[in-house]
């Protein structure tokens, strides 16, 4: 059979196909014989698009390369047990090196720039530059023959920023990103991960101290830092004219956001005392939220402030304070509401049969929290923080095993990448970001003021806290708290957000330098500092573990250091706030939002039984032994451990056979909510109340 | 103790602190008494930044909300076993609804626009509009008293696009994203996931057919579609003047990228015949790559084309063809190289001790592939596709258990989110994207031409393939292949990339409509179509399973349908290409790049022993029974299963106790590489060669 007859046989009896083939060959033939190009310069546009695309990719490639370098180096460091530099410090250093290379050697891509003026007869009555320009090129400008296309069209240009020095503009687009990227894409997973992996047990135990440091302490730091800077710069007249008092206060608020990353990574590697860990972590997580709301409040004061009036304005001040409180609580409520909504969705639907969908829902709901908050002028970071806590506390219990692993590993990965990306960016942008403004005097002043501001937070507040606190915060712990106030991603993201004026550009430069300095130098000196202050390392994570039969009693290490957890003081270790909340949580919130026992049918008054029955799932009633027990012990595993133990092994600790020592407080029904939960699968609440004699029991043996 | 004495006691003996406190109170007092505002309108800038931020967040919120809606609805559909609409279809429909609401009811945010003209004395000699404008506002324009700030500054504006109709501009920024987002952020994970979860076993079995459909077929489709459209539009003179032949060819290439998502999700839910699945999947995955390179080649032809010459230019044509081949193979080599680099990194370092770092390295290396390719003017999609295949084939074997779970679940999640995001966006952008250009005639012509173009790919090529192919592609299979050519994310991303000219805007509109039509209507009719064409569903994934003792013989179902897998034809089932590659892979690539046996010490000639020893790890020598066996069976699990079975259970299938039936071809040493690997842990290669009598054995019983 020849090829032709093959085709003939194929087309046999199909005249319509033959017609089509003929039409096709006609089109192909005449199409190619035509003038192939139409009038529009599509291919030039294509090239333009391609160039933009290539530049974008080079930017991304740069940071991906930096991240790979950081990952490989940090692996080598971990492999050789070197601890003098944390991965974020490495990321910054690599960033600085690459930034310098780009700045001084990189090819300069010259954009096609033309200066423009408003068209004749245009009136513009705003005090900020226009958002959009419409450009019409006339013949007199573009005289080239092929450019006739340009003359008939209007092109749109959008606002990008302001330039001081036109010669600097050439590096404008090099290795920089829109600051919105940090706020909308990189910060939310970092904050969410912090909340999702919070050691809630110790967080609740130290609730009072954490809240004091975070709320009062951050405000104090912001005001002290801001005021000191303002005071100092009065010595330098050239500086004083650039910065108003509100400017320095704003800077104080920006720079008071501390970053837990580096120090906590080292803490958890060294197994530092858990209460110290909880204090540092809790404070840093919350103070990001406070700092961001504080900057908002200061901005709002500045907006309401009447410049003609002069001096301090009481009304505007109280409005700003009111706004601060309103924004914070609204964000908190929004975040918790959406967290609770996710818990309800995962509890009352069978979406857990499809873990991928469940995980997506979880991720999307959490991100929505951030977006709703930001879109309604609340603070997304606060919302996502409390949403993360609710997700960890309630939703996590309802998730399928698969989704637990997925969500944890997903956020861990995102957190790691986002964090190291930001630190790389801080390094690179020191050289490439066009809006830097170096001022040695201001930078020196800031370093001093920041340290003093931190001291004004930690030492007086610890002093006051120690009056009402049973396990006192020792002097050495206070020093560690002081040093742990490193600045990081949040301060940088706040500073880079608005770099329009010279004051703000100076703030950005100073913030970058403070972040770099603290990450590299403070981060590197944590281990010697801990030794120097005699902070116990290698402490068991859970003091309760210490009395497990067979394991050596390690509680002793703890007392030497700082906080003395005597058996009799366990009740007072928990703040009254934590105790009230714990009782409410165990009795109403957990039964409503998770599959845990006791059910609402047991905890609600009998009159509410029909409602309670409706809100109790059959899983909840038939719940077996610890199959879906509380998540806290899993979430409590510190970062270094979770790196190794998440995945299949992550569930080992909730296996029914797992035994935990348990302290029951004398006639205290509402015991620590975290413990209680772990306790449930093994001992029923009835048994618990009979047994509460203040002695410790092995649950396995006591039943 | 009064409060005052408390403070006194605190400051006792610390005069330096007292001085500081005094300084601080001075600063606070005088700071607040000063004029708080400096000259720069920072608070107005802040507000401007805040507004941009709010708008960005509303946009993101919209899509997140749509995704949540889609997730919840699709869960309900799955729960009730409704199959008439796939999740992507749902995403599109929700997108359309919301897009319409935004378009017709949403508030219109009026940007501050002013028309501008070039400053006096400016010369501009390019044929494309300038990239950047520098605006200087003079007094005559902004007369407001507070706006003096504007007069002393230069503002930068960047190019955004072209407008035809100025009244349309008001929805310019509503719910739209930079097209770069699709290419740089959303497509790479989708393509990577496709490659990473490819059923490589069946892919290699059908390598010849897949390559034919992908390479030749896509080119045929592109040219036929393009030519037919050009032919048809000659009937409409008003259309003919807007579109050159190269334009329609470009469109043909854009629209020839098919999307496997919807159809494959349904296939795997219904357990459609694996060979059909492999054909559809393999073809769609590869043809995205071909289509994107083809559009590049057509653009390059257009650039080289001399408009003064007219007609077909042979030199430019062959240059374009050469470029096509060069770009494709370079991208392929780049992707494979980076995949292999990752494999080597994970094999020869102990980074697997830190799974988080390992996962990061894996993700970053894979993304780097895309970025390097794009930055060097190659095609990232092709590179990431082959990188994904290498990662699945080699690197996966070296990963720790934890990283396996992490990487799989991470990409699965990203893929799901990215895909549904794109489909939502297609829906919303139908109404909100300002660059749409509806032309009913062109749209109708395109629908017809696209269908004919697809037919011109499948039917003739299947006809030709069936000459050399033993398990023939039956007529019904051909029909399914024809219908499975739905258009999706890739076509849309290509079309939205450049919407400068009217022709391109028409292409975008038409592409969007074709995508929407095919996802909703074809996607909805797959199940009835399969029944109608008598395609067997509920087929065992692995035909070999069918002869496992104890399970019913299901091979019969398969023969009725289409491909007859008779025992004697197994050898010819594999293409010669697959056989050569399989041999090379098993002997050299896998021993070099993974921890699998045989080691290079066994496969390389004795003279290379020192090198071979260097390249063999101790893990490889001490490898036990299947602990880190091949990944393919895990990767082979189809989507529907993996939703349920990934996580801790995902490793069940590689347990040593797991038995698989195995066919050994008559005196064929290089058996199918996928099978062989599964075989390894149980039978050593020596045993295999002794036993190869062409009979089937249960490995467990044969040793």
TrEMBL record, chains A, B:
Record's Pfam families? Na_H_Exchanger (PF00999)
Where does the record place a coiled coil?
none
List all membrane-crossing ranges. Answer: 57-77, 89-106, 181-198, 210-236, 248-267, 324-346, 367-394, 414-433, 440-459, 508-530
Listed Gene3D superfamilies: 6.10.140.1330
User: What are the entry keywords?
Assistant: Antiport, Cell membrane, Endosome, Ion transport, Membrane, Sodium, Sodium transport, Transmembrane, Transmembrane helix, Transport
Q: Name one GO cellular component term.
A: recycling endosome membrane
Check the record and name the InterPro entries matching this protein: Cation/H_exchanger_CPA1, Cation/H_exchanger_TM, NaH_exchanger, NHE-6/7/9
Residues in Cation/H+ exchanger transmembrane domain copies: 69-531
Task: From the UniProt annotation, give the residues forming the signal peptide.
Answer: none
Where found?
Cell membrane; Recycling endosome membrane
Bilayer topology term = Multi-pass membrane protein
Q: Which PANTHER family match?
A: SODIUM/HYDROGEN EXCHANGER (PTHR10110), SODIUM_HYDROGEN EXCHANGER (PTHR10110:SF187)
Task: Tell me the NCBIfam families matching this sequence.
Answer: b_cpa1 (TIGR00840)
Q: What is this protein called?
A: Sodium/hydrogen exchanger
Organism of derivation: Daphnia galeata
